[in-house]
Specification:
122 residues, 7 helices, 2 domains, 434 Repressor (Amino-terminal Domain)
Length: 122
């Protein structure tokens, strides 16, 4: 059976995120995540609930009751149909391609912001 420390490390590896990103997604400080990973303390029920919701992790996997994440689908907000379709297609991609998509979208958002700033200041 995996420990919570191992499971949290695996989640970050599987989702290709660092401790800071992990912490930001669930609303805690990165130092708190570090404490969990080093086995100094364990996340509370409320935090484990956030981990499951925000990172799409099954509670059974997080608690070490199963070796595989069942990938539950939690709906925090209803997405418009085009965004839902985009998300479904994104989930079919391999990790390296997902990473490329993320950087592309991040670049497009930055370029759009810069464009708006130029128009507003020009």
């Amino acid at each position: 059976m995996n420990t919570i420390e191992d499971i949290l490390k695996n989640i970050m590896i599987d989702q290709d995120i660092n401790q800071t990103t992990f912490a930001n997604r669930i609303g805690v400080k990165p130092s708190q995540v570090s404490e969990w990973i080093r086995g100094k303390c364990k996340p509370s029920y409320d935090i484990m609930h956030q981990i499951c919701l925000q990172l799409n992790i099954s509670s059974d996997y997080l608690l070490g009751l199963t070796d595989e994440n069942q990938n539950p689908v939690y709906v925090l907000n209803t997405l418009p149909a085009d965004e839902e379709r985009l998300l479904q297609e994104y989930r079919k991609l391999d990790k390296p391609i997902k990473k490329m998509c993320y950087y592309y979208v991040e670049h497009m958002v930055t370029a759009t912001k810069e464009n708006k700033e130029v128009k507003n200041n020009g």
